[in-house]
Write a structure and sequence with these properties.
Chain lengths: 440, 440
């Protein structure tokens, strides 16, 4: 027996809109289409929206995974014209208006692709196999378990070279993810490692941030880049510019200039690529790994397929001839424009124009940088601004309270107690010599 | 360079106490030995204490895993005479006063075994392989992901028999874990399934609680047993008494009387067994799977090895000739007695006597049962009492706040938003026929 609400949903005769992906772009579309004359179906491989800008805090034991995730079914429950299905989309057949999923084919009248982006290893299979990445909650929990296990394993190493390798953390990519992660790892060293791993010399833990260019946070102002660098150096992070990683075998990372570094942990945050679906080859831009879209977000060569967010490459916006930055605000603005346009006749639609409201990144307590339309700010005010913007952007009231409480707890107590290791016991096999200084 | 605190710890000339296991018993010992003239080393396979009585709430999406766990290193950090090591103990050589771990041998003067208990499948390998259990955080998260994936998978089943099997939850064991889990699953059906899975008929979800005896909560008063049964039946849980599981192949559970039930999910909560270590065969009680201890918690046949908590079988307490119940209060009282006795000369030690402060179990909102020394209570007051006792027993202030907030949120909004699936996509392979009612 179906519920009354489901019977009513099934009876809707509005055009069917399928939205693939519930990230910032997809979720914004769904929320804006709620109550409008469309029959909406959201598809995602996960059952929850993940607030990606705070993933690095899950990875560094500042936030619990649950506090930055929200189930899609909870979001769509009060929307009578929206349904959700957890499934994997394997392709599109635009000629038939059909999306192909693991669970069969689905017909659409309008298709909105908001599949986002994944880590870009630029074709280096070895690095892809051995390095860690930070695009999903599972990956964040994996990084968390990994560095905590590294600390524990380091205690059993009497050989100093092995111990240094075990405590050497290499982060590749000087964008916001790399910078924020490096700052958070430096806080971990200053608090958790120093106070709770008394057998270890916390200065043995090295944090290397690797960038192939000559400044951090390329999308920010030069002032902000310089300030972020200064903050990181104050916190003891080694920043290596002009360094290009060519390989990583799990023990040693090698660079283009022939140099190398021994490390058990490489976190790769050096680029993203759009998650494109097969079947839309005409609109696919292979260099960018994104779908070419026009000023109305329509995928090139299609009549009723749209792409928004990280997966879309729009070169029609005069201010952004190389396409928009792959960030949440651009994704959400594209979603808002698209929903407005879908409610208008074709010729009344307005082309998208991105309003860059600014960029911000946090490095540590009272240490953040903020760029807003030529205006720059750093320090504690930027840091509180960053907190405010991020907390307000979270999806549910519960998550806002949880995140705020966790931050207050962390920054007042410096205890980072969210330190569950839930992976199998000591995955890495580099523990070479058991010894027993503690109790012998 | 070791820290000053570590150098001071190493220099301690007190007797070395090794505590194996940081559950209720082990953690209580460590907390009581802090600042006392002993050099204490806590060993555990996990890096965190887990508050086991609330594991079922992690499994049923009411609490986040982090809110009931606390890192051992955080607990011992302020204790100058206590250290922690994350390692796996593989055996004991009492003749040499040595504990053998994965990372080498450790010498002790006094050994305290607090390894606790694990799920007892009574030798049934098939059930052990196929059923789920609830003794660790990983297992709780696994149950949570599993039932959420079952809901999603059920949507794709057009065949009613398969759908019923997918939504049939069988819990084996009518003790507190089974009863509390069954009640929480009934709440999930009433809230999450009913409100957010509109395509499913929530009455198709069955919750079977299986017990081989003739009443629930055998350790409680008959009044409480009867009340718990009534609560569960009011919530739509089917309780099957006198049923003994003989097998489970992943699809069908079979009973001793030849009957069977089709289900994708069996959660086994029908018994525990002590986690005994090799090397102490003289003190091992094979039927009970526990270590025989005297009235001072000393393992039979040893001079300086103690066992407390679930792994200890003490028959010397006149009120408990078959040993104490394997519950947290008994474990903690044994720990308290042991620490007091260790500070006394051998002949001044006092034998342990368990003070049963009562038992409580919760079934749902405003539904709990409580037995205190012949006095019985149920309903809302017992429920608030249960909340109070459990929140106050949590290890850290942070966890208390988190748990209270999560409960308040859950019981006011009925939303259970802690619903991350973090396991691989649709593990179970029973999705038989893709179809596409939603958007076709």
């Amino acid at each position: 027996m179906k519920s009354q609400a489901k019977i009513e949903y099934d009876r809707l005769t509005y055009p069917t809109v399928i939205v693939i992906g519930g990230g910032f772009a997809g979720l914004e579309v769904v929320q804006r289409l709620a109550g409008k004359p469309f029959k909406v179906l959201l598809l995602d491989r996960q059952n929850h929206h993940c607030f990606q800008p705070l993933l690095y805090q899950v990875a560094t034991a500042s936030l619990s995974a649950d506090s930055i995730a929200h189930p899609f079914r909870r979001t769509v429950a009060p929307m009578p014209n929206v349904a959700f299905r957890m499934t994997n989309v394997v392709g599109v057949r635009p000629a038939d208006n059909v999306v192909v999923t693991d669970h069969g084919e689905l017909h659409y009248d309008i298709l909105i692709i908001a599949t986002g982006s994944t880590t870009n290893f630029f074709g280096n299979k070895q690095v892809e196999d051995q390095a860690m990445q930070l695009k999903s909650i599972s990956q964040a929990l994996d990084i968390r378990s990994d560095f905590l296990q590294d600390f524990e394993a380091a205690l059993y190493l009497s050989d100093e070279a092995h111990q240094r390798r075990q405590l050497n953390f290499v982060i590749v990519g000087g964008g916001p993810t790399g910078v924020e992660l490096a700052g958070a790892m430096a806080e971990i060293r200053m608090t958790v490692l120093k106070n709770e791993y008394l057998e270890l010399d916390s200065s043995q833990m090295m944090i290397h941030l690797i960038d192939s260019g000559d400044r951090l946070l390329k999308a920010f102002s030069e002032k902000s880049s310089a300030k972020a660098l200064r903050y990181l150096e104050e916190m003891g992070v080694k920043v290596n510019f002009g360094a290009r990683v060519t390989g990583y075998d799990g023990d040693r990372v090698t660079f283009l200039d022939g140099s190398h570094m021994d490390t058990n942990t490489v976190i790769w945050a050096a680029g993203v690529r759009g998650v494109c679906l097969p079947g839309l080859e005409q609109g696919f831009h292979p260099q960018a790994n994104r779908f070419n879209v026009d000023a109305f977000s329509k995928v090139q060569g299609t009549a009723n397929v749209y792409a928004i967010g990280d997966v879309a490459l729009m070169t029609a916006d005069p201010a952004w001839p190389k396409g928009h930055p792959q960030v949440a605000p651009a994704a959400m603005q594209q979603a808002q424009y698209l929903v407005k346009n879908l409610q208008r006749a074709e010729k009344e639609r307005t082309p998208f124009g991105y309003v860059d409201k600014g960029s911000m990144a946090t490095i540590g307590r009272y240490k953040a940088v903020l760029d807003v339309r030529g205006f720059h700010m750093g320090g504690a005010i930027a840091w509180f601004g960053w907190i405010f913007v991020h907390v307000m952007s979270l999806v549910s009231f519960r998550n806002r309270v949880m995140v705020l409480f966790n931050w207050a707890w962390k920054y007042m107590s410096w205890k980072n107690t969210i330190r569950l290791i839930i992976r199998p016991y000591l995955r890495k096999t580099t523990v070479v010599e058991p010894h027993s200084t503690v109790a012998s």
